[in-house]
Structures are given as structure tokens and as C-alpha cells.
Amino acid sequence: MSDFQLTRTLDEHAADRALRADVLHGLTHSPKVLPPKWFYDARGSELFEEITRLPEYYPTRAEREILLARAQEIAAVSGARTLVELGSGSSEKTRHLIEAMPALDTYIPVDVSESALSGAAQTLLAEHPGLRVHALLADFTKPLHLPPSPGPRLVVFLGGTVGNLLPPERAVFLASVRAMLSPGDALLMGTDLVKDEDVLVAAYDDAQGVTAEFNKNVLSVIDRELGADFHVEDFSHVAVWNREQEWIEMRLRARSELVVKVRALDLLVPFAAGEEILTEVSAKFRQEGVRRELSAAGLELTHWWTDAAGRFAVSLSVADGAEPAAGSGRGPEAETAA
């Protein structure tokens, strides 16, 4: 019997339908908006990997620092026998956790890319022969039905991706995560923290222009998939800090007045000179705000770890105040969130 199983909850046309719906809604909306998930075709994924290596982009390094330092502690506190990762991609980050969990029975990666799920599973099974991998081809922003697996479960949502959701979307998402958890289960979540504006803006507007190319890649995706005639040189990359909302906004600004045709939608999209498309919101957090949002979803924040510079946080929360199955299990330097 194979230790790899794949369950498909998305059909082969799901991505096309979603792209059409998002583009039709977003480009006829005022102001114009496109969801950040459409950055990530093959080229977009390559560009993002390049971004994570840029000197200005600290979140990936900061989160990795926490995971390397705290993996044993997270394993002990959670006592997890099943690890569920939302938006797993290559599963690179969770390798640190899996290596620290000798009692782990099942890994459930959730992603919209079947090739990413299969490739990551092959690598992990080669490294951990006793591990079971049950991958879900699914959209983690929709309610999920997890396959049977031994508890306790640790649901992992890393990378600060939760910040790409607007507050009402975060509330729905966190409630859906809570619905997956039984007493003794936990959520491990990465959140980027509020800090100096110059540091934040530089992380999304690097000197080499890699983030600008990444941002404009969404136009290339629409051109290819929907027969549009966007020209990336007609748009400028913009990254701004919204002080009131405490989030970064990435936008694409039309350099001049123009009209774009999206053939697959039979849609003409006029742009005034200087008009913008909002392509990403990336919220930055404070501990008390994270605690409130988790509490509203029925989750209690119990542990809060940051990198040495205090730039990024990884938190652990449990269902309705239930203690993690392994009890305290904390090392002497653990920072509880009490």
C-alpha cells in the first residue's frame, strides 16, 4: 500500500472559472482590484523565490529563524501526530517541523497545484519512509473536509499569508480553521509585524525591481489565459504603507490613458492616466490584534515566538482554550502568550 494519497476537490476547470470570475469582477469594480493568488504561475513562483532571497525581503528569513529555533518546542507543545499545511507549495518550511516530530503519523498538505503536492510528497517520503502523506488538491480559503487521521492535529499556515486576507475574509478563514479542529488540536500561524515604514516599503519595492516584475506578472497571466492585451510596460509598480489600516498595498498604475481588451470575457477595460489596480494587501500585525482575531474565531493564543529582531511572529493557538495534548511541554526559554 502506497504511503501517498491524493484527494482532488477541484476539477480541471476550477482555476479557469475562478480566474474569469475574479478578472471580470475586479476590472469592472471601482477601484479596480485583482487577487494576489494570480501572481503565481510558473514564472510568478520563480520570481517570488527570488524575492525571498533579496536583502530587503526579511519575512522568509525571519520565519525560518523562528522555525529552526523552536521546532522542537512546537513539536512538544502540540504533541501532533497529524500535520496539516494550508498552502503547502513545496513543503520546504514544514520540513523543519516534520524533522522535529518523530511521532508524526500523517502529513496533509493542501494546495491548488497538483504538481507541487506530488513533488513535495515524493521528497518527504524519501526522507521519512514511515510517514503517510494524504494530499488535498483544494482551495484552503474554502471550507475543508480533512481525511481521517490520528490526533492531535496541528494546522500550519505560514509565510504571513493570512495578511493577504482582508479583515472580514480573515474572520471567515479563521472560523473555518476552527471548524477543522477538535479539542487538543492547534493552529500554528505566521504573521508579519508592524515596524518602521521604510523597512516595510522596501520589502515590497526592492532596488533590483524583482517585486515590480512579480507584481506585473499578473497582467501576463491574464494576457495568456484570457487573451487580454495588457502591456506590462504601460503600468508602474507601486508599494505604499497604509498607516490607518497597518498594511502594505501593492498596486499597478497606468502610465497613460488606455483601453485593454480581455477577449475571453468580451470585455473592454478603460484606464485613466494614473488609475490603479490594487493587486495585494499585506497586513502587518500586533500581538494583541492577533489574539483578538483568534479569540473571535474560538481560538486561544497560547504561545508567541518572534525572531531575534522582533520582525515576524509565529503563534500557536488552541481550540476554545483547550490545552495542547502534550500539556505544557515547554522549554525554559519558551515565551507563552499569557
Order of SSEs, N→C?
A: EHEHHEHEHEEHEHHEEEEEHEE
Number of helices: 9
Task: Report the helical percentage.
Answer: 25-40%
Count the beta strands. 14
Low-confidence stretches: 326-334
What radius of gyration results from the CA coordinates? 20 Å
The rounded distance between the terminal residues' Cα atoms is 45 Å
What does the main sheet amount to?
A: 8 strands, mixed
- This entry's quaternary arrangement is single chain
Backbone structural class: alpha/beta
Shape: globular
Q: Strand content of the residues, in percent?
A: 25-35%
Largest sheet strand order: 1-5-4-3-6-7-14-13
The overall pLDDT, averaged over residues, is 92
Please tell me about this protein's structure.
By secondary structure, this protein is an alpha/beta fold. The chain is 33% helix and 25% strand. It has 9 helices and 14 strands. The protein starts with a strand and ends in a 19-residue tail after the last strand. About 3% of the residues have low confidence.
Key descriptive features of the protein:
alpha/beta; 338 residues; 25% strand; four-stranded mixed beta sheet; globular; single chain
Sum this structure up briefly.
The chain is of the alpha/beta class and 338 residues long. The chain contains 9 helices and 14 strands.
